[in-house]
Amino acid sequence: MDPNPSAVDPLPVAEAGPSSSVEGGAARVKCLGRRGRLSWGAAATSGRMAEMEDAHAVAPEFLDISCGGAGGCAASSLSEPGEVAQLRFFGVYDGHGGSQVAQYCASRMHEAVKEEWESGNGNNEESWQRRWEGTFERGFERVDDELISNCVAPDVVGSTAVVAVVSGCQIICANCGDSRAVLCQRGQAVPLTIDHKPDREDELARIEGCGGKVVNWGGPRVQAILAMSRAVGDRYLRPWVIAVPEVTFHPRSEDDDCLILASDGLWDVVSNEEACEIAYRLLRRHRRNGLIGDGTQIPAQAVAESLLNLALRKQSSDNISVVVVDLKVKNRRRPRQ
C-alpha cells in the first residue's frame, strides 16, 4: 500500500485507443489505456465527527499483468494481447461503530483480492468478468471472516467498501455499502456503483425474504439500526446485512477525465454531477498550467482537496474521504510563463 496518498505512477500503462498501427504489413490493435503516467490524490478528514472512522488505500503495485490477462482488453483477439503493466487498486472504507473494520480493510482488502486472483480459483472456462466477480466475492468474504478469526473488532462494528482496479483498458469496481465510485467523462458523471440502501427495491426484497425488516427511523434502516444493507463486519445483523460486493465493469475511453471514490461524507452533500463538474474544471486548469509528474503539483490531489473542502463548506456532518484517479495524465508539461 502506498504510504503517500498522492502520487504519480512512474511506470507506463497501456497505449491509448482504440487505434491500430502497421507493423510488418499487418495492422496491430492497441490497448485502450493511455501511454503516460497514471496519477492519483487523496484527502480525508474527521470533519464534524469526534472520531475518524474512514480509511482509504492505494496499492499501485496491485497486479503486474497485461490488459489481456486482466480481461476486457481491446487487443484481446491477438495471440499476445496487451502491454504488461501493473494494475492499480484504490479503495475507500467508511467505518461505523468504530474505526477497526475500516482500518483493517484498508490494510488487508487489496492483499486478499490479489491472493484470490492469483490462486486461480473457479472454472477455467468462465468469462473474465465472472473471474473478477468471483475474485472480489471471495476476497471480501475472506476479509470479513478474518475480522472474527483475528479478533479485529466487536460484531457491532462494520464498514463500507468501495474499491476500483484500473487496468489499461478497464475500470473494475466492487462495492459493498453506500460509499460510491463515479467516473467523470468530459465533465459528465457516470455512476459506476449503486448505493446499498435498505429501501432499494432489490435489497428490500432480499432483506424481507430472509425474515428481516426495514424500518424508517430517521431514514430506512435494517432492523431499525443500520442505514445500509451491505457492509463488511456487522455480524450481529446477519443474514440481513451481507458482505457480498456488487461488481461492475467499464471500458476506459479517451473521454475519461478521472475516477472519484468517496465516502458518503462527500456524497451526502455533493451530487455526482457537481463533483464531476468541479473535477473537470480543475483538471483542465492544472493540465494547462501545472507541472505534472514531478511531485510539485498533482492535479488529482488538487481535485481531492477541493471536493473535501466543498463538502465541509456544505456542512457535511460525517467523516469525509476522497480518492481521485486522473485518467488523462500523459506527459510532463512546463507551466505557462
From TrEMBL:
Necessary cofactors: Mn(2+); Mg(2+)
Top EC group: hydrolase
Region span, Disordered: 1-25
GO molecular function, a single term: metal ion binding
Family matches, as SUPFAM superfamilies: PP2C-like
Catalyzed chemical reaction(s): O-phospho-L-threonyl-[protein] + H2O = L-threonyl-[protein] + phosphate; O-phospho-L-seryl-[protein] + H2O = L-seryl-[protein] + phosphate
The UniProt record lists the keyword Signal: no
Location of the PPM-type phosphatase domain: 39-327
Keyword set, alphabetical order: Hydrolase, Magnesium, Manganese, Metal-binding, Protein phosphatase
EC number of the protein: 3.1.3.16
Family designation: Belongs to the PP2C family.
Protein name per its UniProtKB record: protein-serine/threonine phosphatase
Taxonomic source organism: Carex littledalei
